[in-house]
């Protein structure tokens, strides 16, 4: 990781974060549910198209996490997210943020704050990003088999789901820990 970080950053001041986005909306997720044997429970699936996007990042070593909800994914949203994440990072710490290769992550228009270094994953490797598992957990435990009335309802329920995840430091650490991330920190 030394070759990726600016030379003036002390390696012992770096925390590795993983970041990603996920869509949550009216055409949401269906998951399995418990039902008495021999019954076929009905699930409602909405046909509308209103959705929101959550940008989230977590640090497995500290259990810290940070999320924001936006109406769309683009460079402007990513810039706002990085600026707010930068303010969230502890004073004197530097965040090496592992990202995928979405266009808004690699845009030339993106101004990365001084206390953040973006580290792209190899192309077509979402399985390497622990945040994918976080999205799956949020949807399975909070956001599946639901109907949403409007955008505000989506934001409210998504906020509750994210706060449940991010307030549980042990859950954050266990879901986001990966050996390859530990190796980056060395």
Question: Can you lay out the helices and strands and say which pair or pack?
Answer:
Blueprint: E1 14-25, E2 51-59, E3 65-70, H1 75-88, E4 94-99, H2 103-106, E5 116-120, H3 131-143, H4 151-166, H5 169-176, H6 179-185
Helix pairs in contact: 3-4
Give a description of the structure.
With 186 residues, the protein is of the alpha/beta class. It has one domain: Nucleotidyltransferase, domain 5. Helices cover 33% and strands 20% of the residues. It contains 6 helices and 5 strands. Helix 3 (131-143) crosses helix 4.
List keywords for this structure.
single chain, 186 residues, alpha/beta, 6 helices
Count of helix runs: 6
- What's the number of structural domains? 1
Morphology call: globular
Mean pLDDT: 87
The low-confidence runs, each spanning 5 or more residues with pLDDT under 50, are none
The CATH topology, please?
Answer: Nucleotidyltransferase, domain 5
Strand arrangement in the largest pleated sheet: 3-2-1-4-5
Assigned CATH class: Alpha Beta
The major sheet is characterized as: 5 strands, mixed
Order of helices and strands: EEEHEHEHHHH
Strand content: 15-25%
How many angstroms separate the termini?
Answer: 8 Å
Beta-strand segment tally: 5
Q: Based on the coordinates given, report the CATH architecture.
A: 2-Layer Sandwich
The H-level CATH homologous superfamily, spelled out, is: Ribonuclease H-like superfamily/Ribonuclease H
Helix content: 25-40%
Give the structural class.
alpha/beta
Cα gyration radius (Å): 18 Å
């Amino acid at each position: 990781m030394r070759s990726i970080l600016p030379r003036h950053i002390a390696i012992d001041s770096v925390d590795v974060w993983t970041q990603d986005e996920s869509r949550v909306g009216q055409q949401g997720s269906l998951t399995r549910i418990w039902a008495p044997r021999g019954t076929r429970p009905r699930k409602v699936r909405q046909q509308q198209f209103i959705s929101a996007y959550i940008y989230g990042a977590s640090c497995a070593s500290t259990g810290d996490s940070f999320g924001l909800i936006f109406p769309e994914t683009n460079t402007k949203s990513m810039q706002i997210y990085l600026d707010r994440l930068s303010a969230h990072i502890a004073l004197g710490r530097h965040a090496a943020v592992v990202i995928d290769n979405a266009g808004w992550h690699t845009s030339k228009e993106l101004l990365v704050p001084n206390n953040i270094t973006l580290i792209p994953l190899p192309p077509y490797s979402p399985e390497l990003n622990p945040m994918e598992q976080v999205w799956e957990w949020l949807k399975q435990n909070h956001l599946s088999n639901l109907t949403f009335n409007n955008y505000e309802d989506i934001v409210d329920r998504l906020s509750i789901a994210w706060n449940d995840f991010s307030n549980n430091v042990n859950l954050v650490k266990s879901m986001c820990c990966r050996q390859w991330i530990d190796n980056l920190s060395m």
